[in-house]
């Protein structure tokens, strides 16, 4: 009886194992046949009623059936796991022979990186960065810079007016007046002011109604023209090469006295004359001068106590010279093919 029962259980188990379609179902089969409350345990429990001859025979068979079912389950388990792995590999298949996809990375805009380079240099010289508004009061753009309402030099910079008293700043020099005011007559003031400026110009290869400037201002006791010359020499060598020389030519700005224009020896031909310097050996870079006493006075500094220098340069011009860029509009039209060429930092 028990023997037949065992053989029948074996058949059932084999069938159940065969039709188990997943690890969960297989686990259920394991519990059903081999678990503590399963039929084989039942058979073993009933063995006490058997005769002495029958007992070892049934006992042995029960063990064999149990082992066999366990082995079959293990076999099936390995089989199911292999199939699962295969499915996973199939669904996650990658073609390692495909060429890689290049990640597109941006780079700094050339103007931004020129400005940063100038800022870094001057920060190293003890200057700090100052900014001012692009929509400016007439007072700061002109009057505080020694350009009263009827001054003819106002025509040097055609302006976009918003009202009679408010305009788009035509240069970064108003930041000089703002910064001096903030210091309330006490030096030193040592700042670099980069930013956008606006002029009523018709756009062409060398003119733009909007462009950038970097202003410099140093006001302290005993600041002299020779200090300006020294700083500008350091700047020229840093931006255009260690063997650059500079020269200062007399010029005019209402807010500086004396006013100068700075040239650098041509970095292309070294001063012999070429098409970059138009045969002169020199390239004009920026305007500068000693801060006019009226400017100091109007912004709360005593000109008998303080002197200073200021300069203003155009990062577009620096970039155009350095890289032979012929059209200023390239900076503003966001043509990625242009911008990509200048991955400087
Ligand atoms: N603001 C002047 C310009 O735009 C440049 C300048 C700045 C000149 C500071 C002298 C001192 O042309």
UniProtKB/TrEMBL annotation:
Give the top-level enzyme category: ligase
Record flagged with keyword Nucleotide-binding: yes
Q: Give the GO biological process terms.
A: phenylalanyl-tRNA aminoacylation
Cofactor dependence is on:
Mg(2+)
Enzyme Commission code: 6.1.1.20
InterPro entries listed in its UniProt record: aa-tRNA-synth_II, aa-tRNA-synth_II/BPL/LPL, Phe-tRNA-synth_IIc_asu, Phe-tRNA_ligase_II_N, Phe_tRNA_ligase_alpha1_bac, Phenylalanyl-tRNA_Synthase, tRNA-bd_arm
Q: Which PROSITE patterns does the annotation name?
A: AA_TRNA_LIGASE_II
Which reactions is this enzyme annotated as catalysing?
Answer: tRNA(Phe) + L-phenylalanine + ATP = L-phenylalanyl-tRNA(Phe) + AMP + diphosphate + H(+)
**Where the protein is mainly located, per its record?**
cytoplasm
Q: Which UniProt keywords apply?
A: Aminoacyl-tRNA synthetase, ATP-binding, Cytoplasm, Ligase, Magnesium, Metal-binding, Nucleotide-binding, Protein biosynthesis
- Superkingdom to which the source organism belongs: Bacteria
Domain Aminoacyl-transfer RNA synthetases class-II family profile: where? Answer: 114-341
GO MF terms, alphabetically ordered: ATP binding; catalytic activity, acting on a protein; magnesium ion binding; phenylalanine-tRNA ligase activity; transferase activity; tRNA binding
Binding note for cofactor: Binds 2 magnesium ions per tetramer.
Gene3D superfamilies annotated for this entry?
Bira Bifunctional Protein, Domain 2 (3.30.930.10)
Q: Does the keyword Zinc-finger apply?
A: no
Sites binding Mg(2+) sit at 257
**Gene Ontology cellular-component annotations:** cytoplasm
Which spans of this chain does the record mark as coiled coil? none
HAMAP family associated with the record:
Phe_tRNA_synth_alpha1
Q: How does it assemble?
A: Tetramer of two alpha and two beta subunits.
User: Could you tell me which NCBIfam families the record lists for this protein?
Assistant: pheS
Which family does the similarity line name? Belongs to the class-II aminoacyl-tRNA synthetase family. Phe-tRNA synthetase alpha subunit type 1 subfamily.
What is the protein name given in its UniProt record? Answer: Phenylalanine--tRNA ligase alpha subunit
Gene designation per UniProt: pheS
